[in-house]
Amino acid sequence: MADGVLEIDDSSFDKEVLQADIPVLVDFWAPWCGPCKAIAPTVEALAKEFSANIKFTKCNVDENPITPGKYGIRAIPTLIFFNKGEVADQITGMVAKAKLEDAINKLILISEGK
Prior knowledge:
- This protein has a single domain (5-111), classed as 3-Layer(aba) Sandwich (Glutaredoxin).
- The chain has 4 helices and 5 strands; from the N terminus they run βαβαβαββα.
- The protein has helices spanning 13-18, 34-50, 66-70, 97-111, and strands at residues 5-8, 24-29, 55-60, 78-83, 86-92.
- The chain has a 5-stranded mixed sheet with strand order 1-3-2-4-5.
- A hairpin with a 2-residue loop joins strand 4 (78-83) and strand 5 (86-92).
- The mean pLDDT is 95.
């Protein structure tokens, strides 16, 4: 597990994501995926910066096919932002850190009811 990013699987998804007390970002990835490797350091940096407000997780789609199938993941990396067990936002592909920061800040506002 990378610093601040929790590795989850099909069996822990409900507990770690859907039942979480705070918003959760799930990074759906695979070890062979170049863009997944490229975005990982950005996600890890954001995890350090926003860990007080958001739980950061990653789910290997090769080892855990049920959860990605449930959420219609067709391309990776896909980052899904959850608030109170519901999908609040989704970003697919390699994107700039600023775009992820914007999505995180929006998620924090949603979770605070603003």
